[in-house]
Amino acid sequence: MIRLNTTIILSYEVSAPSTFILNIQPVNNRHQTVLRESLAVDADIDPHTLTQTDSGDKRLLRFDASAGTVKVDYRATVELRHRFDTPAELRELPVAGLPDAVLPYLLASRYCESDKLMSFAWANFGSLEPGHARVQAIAQWVREHVTFAAGASQWTTSAADTFEQRRGVCRDFAHLMIAVCRALNVPARFVTGIDYGADPALGPPDFHAYVEVFLSNRWYLFDPTDISPTTGLLRIGTGRDAADVPFAHIFGPVRTGKPIVSIEALDDPAAGIEPPQRTALAVCTAEAAVGAEATGNAEPAYRAAMPRPPKLSDAIRLPYAPRAQSSLIMPHVAPTRAGL
Asked: Which residues are paired to 233 by β-bridges?
């Protein structure tokens, strides 16, 4: 098994009363269990507006803040128990055989205009054998034809834009791969999170975006940037594209500072805990889709019942004093800076 410690520190300068909806807490399911977590909000906020929701695919924290500074400090220990399958055994499914819950991930969305890339997708990948290998070929094409360049895109950049510009960051790589998959009638979705195992030369840890594709009735991980092992991907939110799972929705005049993100892997072989490693197997950390019957597993079955996470409400601390600055993702006023 894999255990990761992560810290996320966000800071903001608020010019007038504003509302924040943050999506920074890891998802909790039987493949990814939050063992411990704490949250400190250092700001002048109304405690009655502090609420949390868990929809299964993301966990949201909402609060209203007065003018001043806001600092959010979140820490967690998360255990990952991956499902591994043999890539050659994974098949694409006909649309008629897809579960209802998967159908939205076939359609064009705000940042993944699959309709604009249909001719390209079928001309370049339509003749390949449907299945994991074809999806991997799409990921490889994106990796080879798009240059990873910080600052090369904005929060408005779409898959079609990236296809033309051939430059971007992780969210742009993910959007382009998703759009091409959907153009081929292969369900694909966007995942936000944090990654462990990237080359330190790329810079300090940051939020990350990657892809899940629906094969043989399960969602499998693909990272078209290939900057870290798929076993080191920590899930925060899942949606059709970045519009569904920004790390922050900000309603009001807010200036943002650079987020501080850290992640470390525990290493205790005697306890069966090892750091993430690259693997040639297909990796899954999502629940099977409702109505799907998935079979096969290259690893022994995982235990059915996972420990319940502690109530985060018990760990929230609210010092009543303004302090700091931080990250945006989806501003709802004219942003002072933008990015993902």
From this structure: 195
Give the whole-angstrom CA distance, residue 139 versus residue 134. Answer: 9
Q: For residues 221 and 159, is the Cβ–Cβ distance under 8 A?
A: no
Rounded to whole angstroms, the Cα distance separating 135 from 92 reads: 9
Question: How many helices (H) and strands (E) in the chain?
Answer: 4, 19
Tokens of 144: 């080879």
Per-residue pLDDT tens for 59-89? 999 999 999 999 999 999 999 999 999 999 9
216 residue type, one letter: S
Cβ proximity of 67 and 323 under 8 Å: no
Q: pTM here?
A: 0.85
Q: What angle do CA 282, 176, 56 make, to 5 degrees?
A: 60
3-state secondary structure 218-254: EEEEECCCCCCCHHHEEEEEEECCCCCCCCEEEECCE
Question: Which of 272, 269, 262, 90 lies closest to 186 in space, CA to CA?
Answer: 90
